[in-house]
Amino acid sequence: MKLLVINGPNLNMLGTREPAIYGTQTYADLERYIQDCCAQAGTEVELYQSNHEGDIVTKIQQAYGVFDGIILNPAAYTHTSIAILDALKSVGIPTVEVHLSDIYQREAFRHISYAGQACVKSIMGLGFEGYKQAVEFLVALGCVW
């Protein structure tokens, strides 16, 4: 099984960006954590981070026929990007939406998730642990599509 993990804008700033919300661990820490989770689950993983919506759309499109599942933290694009939603719908790859914080405990404008409408599961508010749960869910699902 091969998973693609896509992280959206500003996640590269983990550790310095709003530590009261996102914690003090860095993006490099998150990458190591995800790689360890995938190794323990016996799955391959590719990690990708971009601050650019179009690049994320392109990466999703390029995943077609290559990856068995996607873990996506669209970050701020969660609440604004119909393009990412449409890309997920177009490839039909089982996708789990992950958020470090609980978007429903934040500002009202963060309560909508466009990307989540094309996801088989959403996990939020668990910090890094959410990625582990996403890996375990997709592995258990078998990502047959």
Rg from Cα: 14 Å
Q: What name does CATH use for the topology?
A: Rossmann fold
CATH superfamily: Dehydroquinase, class II
What is the total tally of β strands?
5
Q: Strand sequence of the main sheet, in spatial order?
A: 2-1-3-4-5
CATH class: Alpha Beta
How does CATH name the architecture?
A: 3-Layer(aba) Sandwich
Q: Main beta sheet: strand number and arrangement?
A: 5 strands, parallel
When the domains are counted, the total is 1
Mean pLDDT rating: 93
Please, could you describe this protein's structure?
- There is one protein chain.
- This protein has 145 residues and is of the alpha/beta class.
- The protein has five helices and five strands.
- Strands 2-1-3-4-5 form a five-stranded parallel β-sheet, sandwiched between helices.
- Helix 4 (82-91) links the parallel strand 3 and strand 4 (95-99).
- Helix 2 packs parallel to helix 5 and helix 3 (53-62) runs parallel beside helix 4 (82-91).
- It is globular, with a radius of gyration of 14 Å.
- The two termini are 12 Å apart.
Question: Top keywords for this entry?
Answer:
about 140 residues, alpha/beta, Rossmann fold, globular
Put the structure in a nutshell.
With 145 residues, the chain is α/β, with parallel strands linked by helices. It has helices at 19-22, 27-41, 53-62, 82-91, 129-141, and strands at residues 2-7, 44-49, 69-73, 95-99, 121-124. It has a five-stranded parallel β-sheet, with helices on both faces.
